[in-house]
Amino acid sequence: MKKVLITLTTKSAALMSLASLVMTSKVTTAGEPVNPQPVDRPDAATTPVSASDQKACVRHPKLGKFFCAHAEELSHLQKGVAEIDVTSDDIEKSLLGVTDAESDAAVAMFGCDCAASINCLRRLRNSLP
Q1: What are phi and psi for residue 8, nearest 5 degrees?
Q2: For residue 67, what are the β-bridge partners?
Q3: Where is the signal peptide (predicted)?
């Protein structure tokens, strides 16, 4: 049994080393760290991303779906507003502080202006530039 195990481990290590040699032109062993090098691709073009192209996505806690918004869609909303604490006893007071613009945007994006939708909307707005 020991001979079979030694034969299997020796053959698999040799096969891995051979596959490594074919793939990378370098021989590596199982304990040796592999340091990949960046690939130089002069043909690949990079395009700068503007603020209007940026998108933020958030997962709605009640609906379980991801919703994304472009920067310009939410630029009219105030940035940096804290999320509503849904465990607080004063949740109604917090909901009274929601602006009409936030309420309309939450209804347009999520279908309701409940605390979960307002929090998702604020999270989206705060993550955008």
Answers
A1: -65, -45
A2: 58
A3: 1-30
Answer yes or no: are the C-beta atoms of 32 and 48 closer than 8 Å: no
Does any domain span residue 18?
no
> Residue 7: how many CA atoms within 13 Å on its side-chain side?
4
Domain annotation covers residue 96: yes
Give, in order, the Cα–Cα distances in Å from 127 to each of 57, 86, 124. 9, 20, 5
Kindly state whether residue 97 falls inside one of the protein's structural domains. yes
Determine the structural domain holding residue 97 and report its residue range: 55-77+87-125
Per-residue pLDDT of the chain (129 residues; tens, 9 = 90+): 666 556 655 555 555 655 565 565 555 566 667 677 777 777 767 666 665 677 889 889 888 899 888 888 888 998 888 888 888 888 888 888 889 999 999 999 888 888 889 999 999 898 887
Q: How many domains does the chain have?
A: 1
**Residue 117 placed within a domain:** yes
